[in-house]
Amino acid sequence: MKTFRAARPRVLLTAVAAGTLLLATACTDDHASSQDKAAAPAATGAASPTATPTPTATPTGEADPALKPFYGQQIVWADCPADPKAEKAKVDTTGMKCGKLHVPLDYAHPAADAIDLALIKHPAAKPDQRVGSLMVNPGGPGASGVEMVEFGAKDFEGTLHDRFDVIGFDPRGTGASAPVVCYDDQQHDALNQEDEPVDPAERKAARVKQSTDHAAACQAKSGKLLPFVGTRNTARDLDVLRAVVGDKKLNYLGISYGTYLGALYAEEFPKNTGRLILDGAVDPAEDTLDHGVDQQVGFEKSFERFAADCVENHADECPLGKDKDQAAKKAADFLDGLHDHPLTVKDGRKLGRDQAWTGVISMLYGDEKTSWKYLRASLGWAMVRDKGDFLMAFADDYNGRDEQGHYSPLDEAHTAISCADAARPAPTPEHAKAAVDRLLAQAPLLSKGVTVDDYTEPGCAHWPFKTQEKPHTIRAEGSAPILVVGSTGDPATPYASAEALAKGFANATLLTRVGEGHGAFGKGNACIDKAMAAYLTEGTVPAAGTRCE
């Protein structure tokens, strides 16, 4: 996803410069967008600018007497409330149950304050063959695990749903779990309508103002919550959930950012790990600037492959000309031109450069069999017919904006969690120059106009909460075998990240999907689906080096 404000394209460059983790929501193309739900009230109040996260050494888990009330609670599962979005999407939620999990706001002082996390459960279809629960997280940070189950139930049909209660939850600070709140809908619209300046000096000044304003707005509305939304606390919530539903070990599927959550869980609670699948993996040891550059390069390569495929295999509907080597540049030039000549969409908003690039990037999370067809059509309508409505619709979906103009807490949660997890220090001049040189050499279309000055500030420089978390290799000594899954053409979490994560663990196996798009789960690859099901249901780890074509 993204952070703070627009860049070129807005979902990438600013996040790289800000030093926040830029990860994706891993949803299949027919999942509903992330949208507002009835939210539990966010904790509010002032937070110290120098507050620090709960230290890793703080006693946690069932052994801590202070946490006994939380580990001993019972979830009241009831029919889920009516959801107009599910009805509109004709999603069958029959049999699903909803509930709430009570967790401490601050695990160092569990009696001081608490919040409720939103839950959904799709009970096992064959109870007599039930293995246990399968907890899931779709990515982000900021995406809704409740919506992953509600709108993506078909991805679990078959072996997984037969034998597991599939449980989704909105992590703290997201969705309906005490969401971080900073802006109202009108403010979100105004920010998204504004393209970043082309001039480097003006762009830097605009970023400083926007990030400062954003931090102040979040502090004013959600200040009490900000120090406690980091992933380490969410991992502790996950252990409470595991125990409360009656599972001795955690079975878990995490996609994209969800792999970081799973890795931190394994680090915090290695003896409680059951069968963990970490798909579309993040390397927790990688510097966030380097990670952002890797992503930018990954999306550039994906964009080029899409453009070549458009010309070679879909000439009758491709608006990018006949030269496959120039197709990507033709599209990029058009998108860049929207900075000065935006398109007006049906609701009166303007589709500028940054929103258009956001729409394009959102469709590059899919592959040639799914979302690329929508990208061809969207570019065709914009480039040939001067109609930007489809690109705007995909940008809206990515930004968490529904058809009524309401925004989910996605943006706010992303920044708050990212800044709680790791704030990049100011890079050395040599590091900044190396990053820019690589961007201009390997991602010239998506990085047009970048300068070293775009990367001089430390990440999360204006954020009110200063984290002590740092990138580090996670070993998780003593854990059960962990299955890491990587896709060779993944633009958001490049394959090298999966290799690094698997290598860092004390006990892990890497499973490879050869193909385009972000994440392997739900992509229709029979080899991947079979391997995941065998691992989760039987504990059978695929042979080392297994590659699914």
From TrEMBL:
InterPro entries: AB_hydrolase_1 (IPR000073), AB_hydrolase_fold (IPR029058), Pept_S33_TAP-like_C (IPR013595), Serine_prot/Carboxylest_S33 (IPR051601). Keywords: Hydrolase, Signal. One of its GO terms (molecular function) is hydrolase activity. Residues 1-26 form the signal peptide. Residues 459-548 form the Peptidase S33 tripeptidyl aminopeptidase-like C-terminal domain. Gene3D superfamilies: alpha/beta hydrolase. The keyword Signal applies. Residues 38-65 have a biased composition (Low complexity). It comes from the Bacteria. Residues 134-315 form the AB hydrolase-1 domain. Pfam families: Abhydrolase_1, Abhydrolase_4. Residues 36-65 are annotated as: Disordered. Coiled coil: none annotated. PANTHER family: 2-SUCCINYL-6-HYDROXY-2,4-CYCLOHEXADIENE-1-CARBOXYLATE SYNTHASE, TRIPEPTIDYL AMINOPEPTIDASE. Belongs to the peptidase S33 family. This is Peptidase S33 family protein. It comes from Streptomyces rubellomurinus (strain ATCC 31215). The lineage of its organism: Bacteria, Bacillati, Actinomycetota, Actinomycetes, Kitasatosporales.
